[in-house]
Amino acid sequence: MFQDPSFQITVTPLQYVLSIISGILVGFSLGLIGGGGSILAIPLLLYFVGLANGIAPGTPEYSYITHLTLGTTALAVGINAYINSYMHFKRGNVRVSEGIIFTIPGIIGDIIGAYLSHLMSGALILFLFGFLMIAVAIRMWKSKCNPNKSILSNNSHKLTLRERIKIDKVIPAGFLVGFASGYFGIGGGFLVVPGLLFSTGLDMLRAVGTSLIAVGTFGVAAAITYAVYGYVDIVISLLYLVGGVAGGYAGSTIASRMPRQTLRKLFAIIIILVAIYTMYINRVGVVDLLHFL
């Protein structure tokens, strides 16, 4: 049961089951195609689990459900990232120093983003989120799955921390990525990895492993900020997490047997279709955007 000064809703047993299924789908997509898969976590919770069903966009109730979804998915994504970071750490793919340095300014941006998000209407947030989904889909379509990029390059592992870190780049990059993560309630792995490559001397494999430190921290920090305003459901987050672990294992197993590039392009198309649907449902957010501007 979630309560707000203006209304209350009840999550049914069926919706809890659908939350597990949603977690499986998100985890499966992550295991199958890698970064960007979690972008579907929010629309799945809103429209598949059905937290937003029957609630008109633009109403206070809809905004409440939207913020609740952002906080809930942020917690699930954050915990899942920490679990995966441990697995990468055991394989030697995590540079803790770089991860912490990138994360510190990101936490500030993350908290600011989450705070500003709770002030915005749900329709506006989701309308803008549609643009982010399209950007992720385009990047996914254009990206090339080259396994050779996982090999250490340029002897980056031999450089000192001072030589690897570009402070003038890592601070703004970390802040901006953290802000986006907090505002939209996402882990932002698809933003963190390029940010680390841009501002540090890490190779691709270690950038992916190290990014999970930031993704986990951003997710948990955003969830805590949303929780202050009552926008987190721990039960659904845990169900998402359980489903995500199972789905991730299945996805990663199947991925080794299928053409990864074809899968990424297919998934990019799915994300674009979901983005168009999300933007259409929340088109009233355009009015809020014009008022905001």
From TrEMBL:
Pfam families: TauE. It is a multi-pass membrane protein. Keywords: Cell membrane, Membrane, Transmembrane, Transmembrane helix. The chain crosses the membrane at residues 14-32, 62-83, 95-116, 122-141, 170-193, 213-242, 263-281. GO terms for cellular component: plasma membrane. The keyword Membrane applies. InterPro entries: TM_pro_TauE-like, TSUP/Inactive_protease-like. It comes from the Archaea. It is found in: Cell membrane; Membrane. Its main location: membrane. Belongs to the 4-toluene sulfonate uptake permease (TSUP) (TC 2.A.102) family. PANTHER family: MEMBRANE TRANSPORTER PROTEIN MJ0441-RELATED, MEMBRANE TRANSPORTER PROTEIN YJNA-RELATED. This is Probable membrane transporter protein. It comes from Saccharolobus shibatae.
